[in-house]
Amino acid sequence: MAKNTFRSKNAGAKTVTPPPQDTPRKLTSIWSRVKRIVVKLLVFFFASTISATIFFKFVPIPFTMTMLSRKMEAMAAGKDSEIHYDWVSYDEISKEAPLSVVAAEDQLFPEHWGFDFKSMGNAFNRNLKGKKIRGASTISQQVAKNVFLWQTRSYIRKAFEVYFTVLIELIWGKERILEVYLNVAEMGDMTFGVEEASKRYFGKSAASLTREQAARIAAVLPSPRKWSIAKPGPYVVRRTAQITRQMRALGGPAYLSGLRKF
Q1: Which of 43, 159, 206, 212 is 20 to 30 Å apart from 238, CA to CA?
Q2: Secondary structure element (H or E) that encloses residue 251, with its range
Q3: Residues of the chain with pLDDT > 70: what percent?
Q4: How many other CB atoms are found less than 10 A from the CB of residue 224?
């Protein structure tokens, strides 16, 4: 009797195990956990930053990242690392001081909501033409950077700067922003704020500053460690005169009367 030699076409083929049916569910579960973590991080970020902004609307700024950075640099170089910083309220500062920094740094400060888009456009065009690189940061942007952020330039830091600028404009208002700026801006080597600058370089409190003295302080703000208030060179002398003229042209301290407080 002849043997049956028929063999199935699939004989000897490897059996392919289908993927587990729960793989899609596992991926969905992982993605859900990632989304929950991201949401929690975002909630924490917004809650903490908004809370800090509200808190510092009423409480003096204890220190800034710039102060910490300067102190660490001085310690690393073996230099005197003492930070000269003394907070004073807006009402304890000569009205010439806020006017001087606005005249020097941001003349549209009372009007804008944190950003001077015209100046930003002019600076961008100037930089594209290969001229001396310059920014167009408003006083509000400088305060946001000095109080909440680090100094190193990057797109990420700039994005955070925009965010914090919007926050302080909405929560602090103009007078508080200017008060903080006058207290935390670097105005000399290891010297922060108009009160310490007044004491160290003029031997008086910020409440007694004259127009020319306030203008000289404002004149060194772009590079407070390069230019000196105590021993002004030709540039600082010229810049002081320019700022004084601008202060008169703006109409004096009355220009800043009625600043938005919220």
Answers
A1: 206
A2: none
A3: 85
A4: 20
Cα–Cα distance, 85 to 197 (Å, whole number): 9
pLDDT greater than 50 at residue 20: yes
Q: Which two tokens stand for residue 231?
A: 């021993």
Domains of the chain by range and CATH? 62-74+83-256 (1.10.3810.10)
Residue 61 corresponds to which tokens in the numbers above?
């700024």
Q: What does the CA dihedral 138, 124, 118, 217 come to, rounded to 10 degrees?
A: 30
Identify whether the C-beta of residue 136 lies closer than 8 Å to the C-beta of residue 119.
yes
What residue type is assigned to position 257 of the chain?
Answer: S
The pLDDT, as a whole number, for residue 213 is: 97
Tokens for 91? 């009402």
pLDDT tens digits, one per residue of 81-91: 999 999 999 99
Using alpha carbons, select from 71, 67, 99 the residue that is nearest to residue 86: 67
